[in-house]
Amino acid sequence: MNMKAPWITYRPEIKVMDCTVRDGGLINDHCFEDGFVKAVYQTCIAAGIDYMEIGYCASRKLFATGKSGDWRFCEEDAIRRIVGENDSPMKLSVMADAGKCDWRNDILPKKDSVIDVVRVACYVHQIPEAADMIKDAKDKGYEVSCNLMAVSTIPEPDLDQALEVMAASDADVLCVVDSNGALYAEQIELLVKKYMAAVQCKKQIGIHAHNNLQLGFANTIEAIIHGANRLDATMAGLGRGAGNCPMELLLGFLRNPKFKIRPVLKLLQDHFVALRGQMDWGPSVPYNLSGQLNQHPRMAIAARSGPDKDKYVEFYDKCVSEG
Amino acid sequence: MNMKAPWITYRPEIKVMDCTVRDGGLINDHCFEDGFVKAVYQTCIAAGIDYMEIGYCASRKLFATGKSGDWRFCEEDAIRRIVGENDSPMKLSVMADAGKCDWRNDILPKKDSVIDVVRVACYVHQIPEAADMIKDAKDKGYEVSCNLMAVSTIPEPDLDQALEVMAASDADVLCVVDSNGALYAEQIELLVKKYMAAVQCKKQIGIHAHNNLQLGFANTIEAIIHGANRLDATMAGLGRGAGNCPMELLLGFLRNPKFKIRPVLKLLQDHFVALRGQMDWGPSVPYNLSGQLNQHPRMAIAARSGPDKDKYVEFYDKCVSEG
């Protein structure tokens, strides 16, 4: 039997994006203190991480701004308060949700911004707006990713059509996004192969996994095996609901010596041990169930935020009765 | 592209073993109260689980018995106190460690015991004693498994030799055991294929995964894909160190309608929420690191049991300095 070990080498094309502040902001309405955001930023640089996504560029006109934190809007001043001119090799990203941002006005020309990447997030019915957003961001000078969300819920013909549009767009990256945390490895394999076939080597494929089934890390590895070169992860897996692929696991797996895990461990002990007492995330039973049932995590999030957070049977009965 | 979905069917040959009390006993010196063990036992039956491993049959002569609980010894009286005559379709298992049990005397003839299965656990240097233990248990009338531990640390020639001995034995099952929780999916694939080739369809292959890298469940699925039909899991993943493949995830994945998840959810809310405050298990950072470094979890267990349990950098420096 061939016992060679491809996993001890590495693929230089692989790049890692930290989404801690962006995805984690969905737990606390984007209200991270500057000290925390700076610590994540500096850790990412020290760890050799390629990209950091700092938040959303939602529209202040569309959303009440009173309670949401700065990382929902990512205005240039707020970002520069943390990163200055970002005098580092790490690129900065913002996520632009179709239907939630005034992208024509709020996304500045690249020359006026410290941001490098715009990731356009959309549901499948929003593909037409996403296509316009991709063109706008590309014309303004940004690297662009298209993140088609909740792929586990998209019927095959719709996905094929969406992939045709995305493949024809100017986006540099198409990202497989398992918003429900519902996919198993074999499904990740099929999707990554499908996305790879659609782009015909002209774009990179990314993976954004959620951890409902404790498969966030495993599915990221599976995507790597089949050719994904853009990997999303977050510190301690921080992110909405069950959270994401944990950065400390991903960096421990990747063999490229440019990645350093020690700065991440320092960040975890200095900031995330305390955060565990203040925010709820990770693959608890309600998220296990919403993943198994391929449901949006909103019911599980509601369950986990109240006194019934550990009433698993009641939650299960509710999930299957509404099915 | 072929988009058929083999994962929505099931393989009737697959059988699940609950190891909650056995592996979990390594955290609390096997001191579970009868009420807890009974609850696990009754839940396993209600959930359609095929086997329950209730503990070790260590020798009372070899070990001081003052502080260890009954589930380290699994004397017939203790087991019957929980299960009576085990009037259920579920089979009961005990684990017999090479070098730690007086198997000739302590393992009764099958006709005198409510136990159905003996799982012989050994390190690779103990294969000769394990072979004797397998023969003894088989001659006494039991179904027998051979669990060669810490396979991630065994050099290839040693593993090949051990597999030759185990394949020639009367064991019904050979189990791939990732004691260090160090293996990635591609390694699981190679090992399961190697074990399958060794037994030439004459025995079943099992998988016992640990969860150091949040891969316990993923690696169990990977083993299934490549032919493993004997799956170990524990309620809430309870088990030494990072714990095991969580039963609630595994049952949610398996499609055989005989398995029911709801009784497991009831057990988790009634017993395991409280247990979280009393025992430490699961893939915390020190276990992530011992898995990444393919080390025995003993240093991580020591770290997690003291006031420095969240001093990750110090722990990392200690791990790599001893390398």
Account of the protein in words:
The structure is a homodimer of 323-residue chains. By secondary structure, the first copy, chain A, is of the alpha/beta class. Chain A starts with 14 loop residues before the first strand and ends with a helix. In chain A, helix 7 packs across helix 8, helix 11 runs antiparallel to helix 12 (298-304) and helix 11 runs parallel beside helix 13. Chain A is globular and about 55 Å long. Chain A has an eight-stranded parallel barrel, surrounded by four helices. Chain A has two domains: 11-275, TIM Barrel (Alpha-Beta Barrel), CATH 3.20.20; 285-321, no CATH class. Chain A has helices at residues 20-24, 34-46, 76-83, 103-106, 127-139, 156-168, 185-199, 216-225, 247-253, 262-275, 285-292, 298-304, 312-321, and strands at 15-18, 51-56, 91-97, 117-122, 143-148, 173-177, 204-208, 230-233. At the A-B interface, helix 7, helix 8, helix 9, helix 10 and helix 11 of A face helix 7, helix 8, helix 9, helix 10 and helix 11 of B.
Q: Care to give the gist of this entry?
A:
Chain A has helices spanning 20-24, 34-46, 76-83, 103-106, 127-139, 156-168, 185-199, 216-225, 247-253, 262-275, 285-292, 298-304, 312-321; strands at 15-18, 51-56, 91-97, 117-122, 143-148, 173-177, 204-208, 230-233. By secondary structure, chain A is α/β, with parallel strands linked by helices. Chain A has an eight-stranded parallel beta barrel, surrounded by four helices.
